[in-house]
Amino acid sequence: MVKRFVIAFAAFFLAATTASAAFAKDPVYTGLFSNNAVDGYDAVAYFTEGKPVKGEKTFSMEYKGAEWRFASADNLAAFKAEPEKYAPQFGGYCAWAVSQDYTARGNPENWTIYEGKLYLNYNDEIQKRWEADIPGLVAAGEENWPGVLDK
């Protein structure tokens, strides 16, 4: 009986890990327990207010398989008109991590607008590393994107 259980468990584990490896990560980071892009923050507000602002469910839309929330109807309209202008680069994954050829959570509190594009990073320490060479790290990230989603 124990032997059957061990074999069944091993077969299940092998199937589960093989199946998960076969699927690429989502093109927009949403975390494990939500479908909110940018953790529910308003991507447009970074450009218009210069700071992270929580979005409202009232002002939301779906884009690239994720729910995007906004603080106002005007910001929702701006995003609808030009989503690529406002959506964070590298799908909202940590920009520094993408430059290093892996993915990590992008934190809406650790952000930069560089050459008109929004980049998120994992935490304050990673943000400092990012700020030390933004042009070089952007170039490295662009080389790795979107292939890094398959890793």
UniProtKB/TrEMBL annotation:
Ranges for domain YHS: 44-89
Cited Pfam families: YHS (PF04945)
Signal peptide range in chain numbering: 1-21
Keywords attached to this entry: Signal
Name this protein carries in UniProt: YHS domain-containing protein
Lineage: Bacteria, Pseudomonadati, Pseudomonadota, Alphaproteobacteria, Parvularculales
